[in-house]
Amino acid sequence: MPGWPANPVIFPKPADEHAWSTRAVLGEELWITERPRDTAMAVNAAATLAGITALIAARRRRAAPAAAATVVMMALLLVYWRLMAGYYSRHRGANTG
After folding, report:
1. How far is CA 5 from the centre of its chain?
2. CA distances from 37 to 5, 7, 12, 42, 45 (A)
3. Three-class SS of residue 1?
4. Which of 61, 64, 70, 85 sits between 20 and 30 A of 51, alpha carbons compared?
5. Is the predicted pLDDT of residue 16 greater than 90, yes or no?
6. According to the model, what pLDDT value does residue 10 have?
7. Among positive and negative, which fits the CA dihedral 73, 86, 10, 1?
8. pTM to 2 decimals?
9. Which regions span the lipid bilayer (predicted)?
């Protein structure tokens, strides 16, 4: 859950920033504070729509459309995480202080 207030309490600060997933999460934390209207927002919205589509298809017991929408959602989430890792790389020193 992005931006969930308990995350900093439950999960300690990472030991380093070598892992791609760490940079993606840290990038998302920076990105959420600014909410720029950029490609990441569009990708996130599309992933959300694909997830909703998957849930509706699953509720209707339509396995193929549910699976296809899930694949699309996961692919879009990987693109989103890549964008967040890149955002972190570009902005990591700007918000410290």
Report:
1. 16
2. 23, 25, 30, 8, 11
3. coil
4. 85
5. no
6. 76
7. negative
8. 0.78
9. 39-58, 65-83
Q: Tokens for 87? A: 């955002």
Biggest CA–CA distance in the chain, Å, is 52
The residues spanned by each domain of the chain are 36-91
Instruction: Reply yes or no on whether the pLDDT at 1 is more than 50.
Output: no
Distance CA 58, CA 67 (A): 8
Query: Whole-angstrom Cα distance, residue 95 to residue 91?
Result: 7
Tell me how far apart the alpha carbons of residues 50 and 53 are, in angstroms, rounded to a whole number: 5
- One-letter-per-residue 3-state SS of 47-67: HHHHHHHHHHHHHCCCHHHHH
Residue 73 token pair: 């959602």
